[in-house]
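User: I'm curious whether this sequence folds into something compact or stays loose and floppy. Could you predict its structure so I can see for myself?
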Amino acid sequence: MTDHNGSTTRRGIILGAAGGLIAASAQAAPAELKMADIKKEADVACLYHCDYGDHPRFNQTLNNISNHYSVYGSDPFGLQLALVVHSVGVKFFLSTLEGTPWKDEVIPPEIFERITALSKNGLKVYLCEITFKRLNIDKAKVKDAPFISFVPSGVATVAALQSKGFSYLKVG
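Assistant: Here's the prediction. I'll summarize afterward.
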């Protein structure tokens, strides 16, 4: 489904997922969104902010997201969640850590499996382009998943989503 501007809507993406996401799985790299591309499409919308890289804290963020969905019966139309990621948090979305500041770390694969499972409820992940530029990380290292997109700035996206009516949560 598209909106009146021809942009793909959240409902269209979710309905496409039910049909197999054939076109999206063929994409070479995550989409690059503009601030105006992100819309509030549910009465209840919340952004989770991740600028940290420690595994227990990130796992707690995923627990909170899972719990959040469970209260709404995992209804992707009743609740809209976004995970805005910048700084060291981007490492959880890379296919390899070679050539990054975290080259000696190991990210357990079950972390991304959990993110993928949560995406089936509508979770969208927005990665900060500024982080990739400043850390000189090739954006092609990002895992190929239809729920991941690039945004110009993580912190600007946090503010933009709040101005659009998204609540703000950060695991501390």
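Summary: Residues 29-169 form a domain with the Hypothetical Protein Ychn; Chain: A, fold (CATH 3.40.1260.10). The chain has one domain: 29-169.
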